[in-house]
Amino acid sequence: MNNRDDNLAQVLFSESEIKKQIEVIAKQIENDYKNTKNTLCVIGLLKGSYVFIADLLRLIDLPVEVDFMIVSSYGNEKQSSEVKILKDADLQLSGRDVLIVEDIIDTGYTLEKICAHLKTRDPSSLKICTLLNKPSRREIDIKIDYNCFDIDDLFVVGYGIDYAQKYRNLPYIGIVK
Ligand code: IMP
Ligand code: MG
After folding, report:
1. Which of 10, 102, 111, 115 shows the greatest Cβ crowding within 10 Å of its Cβ?
2. Considering the entire predicted model, what is its pTM?
């Protein structure tokens, strides 16, 4: 364990396990989009997805355009109406194939809000890719197109994912005590 902290209980996914699984997902995405006419638009949700999106996209051998959105999180509030978009995607999305990249899908409220919003921008397709999925926590039915790992109801950090803004630079995914 590093990051000089003993709040980390254990490693859930090592660097090499993450890499292996992202390679699998990247190939699926490459295969699914290889015949699309328009350049794929990939939209990462900041900040949690920044490491994942960087590694994922470098394994996809297709032309892509990249953009980011910022969504506010209000602690433990669970209403989708309370999920606020602080930064929208700048790319032109109408008629485009759009792929959202998220770090963790938990209750599903964030993705519900993002998808409803992006649909108003008239993409020709909208899919979701997540690094982690917590199915036991779901409150909103979300169709996930690409998922690297299902996990139990655990609080995880690392590989871009934070606890109070810390631990994002851990190269593995760990469980907080
Ligand atoms: P949802 O709207 O409940 O699906 O929330 C998803 C967001 O909650 C993720 O994008 C994360 O920012 C945050 N989140 C959920 N679980 C964890 C966790 O275990 N560690 C850190 N952030 C988490
Ligand atoms: Mg997030």
Report:
1. 102
2. 0.94
